[in-house]
Recover the amino acids of this structure.
């Protein structure tokens, strides 16, 4: 059974990735293009200033490895789909383990309810919490010198958020027979939120939105990064992940529905049925 | 995932491993491992660290996706 779940996760991820990429290509990519235009204009202004100050020194950036067209269409598409397939794989493994417990302990549970809960947990733990700690930024927002520190902090909050979410689910399942489903869910959620809040408070902060470029006299020669581009970019980034996780969860639940239905020609004693909880 | 349903009359000298559980564990572990590897290469490799020296081809290729997905970038 676990192979069928993994296959379902990979297929759900593939479909979710394609849908999320179509959304991203239409709504997020224009914000990326605006940010790259800003970046180009800014470095020109800085080079002109530097040339005036140091007598014609211009630092040339190396040629791009891939054209913008390749990056925004092929690279972004493959990257988004690979990400979604990874999420689908994690989803399938988490579902298999969770269902192995819940399905045996509470046989009346609809596996699609478990999948829906898992989709919500995955969205919050793998995207929501890391995003609220370190919001997504368009190109040009972010200091090259801190990329190592920012990557490390982002990976740390992502891994800890997932670990806390796993602990919260274990806690909820352990408390459920003792204090009931609702209270155990609330207790686990509060515990998770307290743990991630403390973690985020302990991690470093980064405020790297480029301010205006000024010349020696303090005159603004190039404006700061446009705030509306950052705002739009972040709203669309959240929307893109909502779409990705929703499609992933819905497709996975639909496949579960098909797996649950015994084949019409199969004998009555079909121990491969998902409702039996076997794997 | 299920406990073995086979019961033997006599105790065996060596425990028979339940391969269906072991098989499931292998499949699940392998899936997590491969997905984690792909996730790492997509979101982190060649940002701060690079497994294959200071090459940035993977980073540049999936650059826009990294921004879409909220990974730290430039
Ligand atoms: Zn970037």
């Amino acid at each position: 059974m676990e192979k069928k779940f993994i296959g379902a996760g990979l297929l759900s991820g593939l479909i979710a990735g394609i849908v999320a990429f179509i959304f991203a290509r239409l709504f997020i990519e224009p914000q990326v293009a605006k940010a790259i235009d800003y970046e180009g204009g800014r470095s020109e202004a800085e080079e002109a200033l530097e040339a005036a100050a140091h007598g014609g020194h211009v630092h040339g950036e190396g040629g791009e490895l891939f054209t913008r067209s390749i990056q925004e269409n092929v690279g972004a598409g493959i990257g988004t789909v690979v990400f979604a397939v990874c999420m689908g794989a994690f989803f399938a493994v988490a579902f298999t383990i969770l269902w192995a417990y819940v399905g045996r302990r509470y046989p009346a549970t609809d596996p699609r309810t478990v999948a829906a809960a898992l989709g919500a947990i995955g969205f919050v733990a793998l995207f929501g919490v890391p995003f609220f700690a370190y919001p997504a930024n368009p190109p040009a927002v972010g200091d090259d010198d801190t990329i190592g520190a920012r990557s490390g902090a982002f990976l740390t909050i992502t891994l800890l958020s997932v670990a806390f979410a796993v602990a919260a689910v274990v806690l909820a399942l352990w408390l459920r027979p003792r204090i009931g489903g609702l209270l155990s869910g609330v207790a686990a959620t509060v515990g998770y939120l307290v743990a991630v809040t403390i973690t985020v408070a302990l991690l470093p902060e980064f405020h790297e939105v480029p301010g205006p470029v000024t010349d020696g006299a303090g005159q603004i020669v190039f404006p700061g990064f446009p705030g509306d581009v950052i705002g739009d970019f972040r709203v669309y980034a959240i929307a893109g992940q909502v779409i990705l996780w929703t499609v992933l969860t819905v497709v996975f639940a639909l496949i579960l529905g098909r797996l649950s239905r015994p084949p019409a020609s199969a004998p009555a004693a079909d121990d491969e049925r998902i409702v039996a909880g076997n794997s | 995932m299920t406990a073995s349903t086979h019961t033997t009359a006599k105790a065996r000298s060596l425990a028979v491993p339940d391969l269906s559980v072991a098989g499931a564990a292998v499949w699940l572990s392998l899936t997590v491992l491969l997905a984690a590897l792909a996730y790492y290469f997509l979101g982190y490799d060649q940002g701060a660290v690079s497994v294959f020296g200071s090459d940035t081809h993977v980073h540049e290729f999936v650059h826009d996706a990294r921004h879409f997905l909220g990974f730290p970038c430039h």
The longest strand of chain A covers residues 220-222. Residues A 139; B 63, 67, 73-74 surround zinc ion (CB under 6 Å). Confidence is low (pLDDT under 50) at residues 268-279 of chain A.
